[in-house]
Amino acid sequence: MIQIALILLVALTFSIVATPLARRAALRVGVVAVPRSRDVHLSPVPLLGGAAIYGGFVVALLAFGDQRYIRELVAILVGATLISLFGLADDRWGLRASVKMGGQALAGLVLLLGGTQVQLFEQAWLNWAITLVWVVGITNALNLLDNMDGLSGGVATIAAAFFLLLAAMNEPRQVLVGAMAAALIGGCVGFLRYNLNPATIFMGDTGSLFIGFILAALAVKLRFLGNTPAVTWMVPLCVLALPILDTSLVFVSRLRRRVNPFTTAGKDHLSHRLAALGLSKREAVLTCYLIAGACGLVGVYLTQARLHEAYLVAGALAAAGVAAIVWLERVCPGGNLRGA
Length: 340
Known about the structure:
Blueprint: H1 2-29, E1 32-33, E2 45-46, H2 49-64, H3 70-92, H4 97-113, H5 124-145, H6 151-169, H7 175-195, H8 204-221, H9 229-232, H10 234-239, H11 241-256, H12 270-276, H13 281-302, H14 307-331
Antiparallel strand pairs: 1-2
């Protein structure tokens, strides 16, 4: 526990100190988010906050990480660095969606080469394919979720906290998961000091892609000693249910409107719809935090549940998500109130 506390503290301190420096650097080199019609901020905001999160994460793990897991850690850090560089290039110059997804797939391959992969099936190729789809999917989900002050960083903190709890519940094989989760919590919380509404800096794709990749890797690395894989494969889905719900809502909405979900942007995310229904921006973000926390608790419950109980609860959660998408598309189609 001392090691975990040190990792969290170092990442937190680094992020708190480095975020204002990243803000100055972003202003100096012109990496700034200029307001567009789809954005909720009204004035230019510096990007590059993700660089502080990344730095805190890496420094903390290199300083206090367990050297017994160095091969896997190096592969994860190389993949995370690669995907952060793609995000940095997108923040500075803008990249096509296909290029960013190619970078995410490449980072996923690095993860596979380091030995981090899904282990659900006997066929190796099937596990590799699921791992790549998972990495690309969750990475994009956190990227899409970064649409309101404090949202992506806060939801990532909650998810990482549940991964840390689950790692502690399944010691001693989860040392690396616990260390990475603690480092991510510290980096995100330090950044949130400057990113909560009204934000003075955004994480940009440098941060959102990095965070999504790390959360995807944590989910793949997590192992459960007291239950069967037939149950525990659902746990990461519950912990990350909020970004999955948001991404699903956006895809359904855009496909219904016959627009390309990969190249089209707009105010059709869950947070935007909550704001359209009458919540303030801060209340919308806090509501998303509550949903993320409740889904994480369901994930923890599943680790202790019997097979039939787990599928019943997970099925109910999935049904609630589908019902939420249908309802939001009915009362707030495309992010606009019906009749407004």
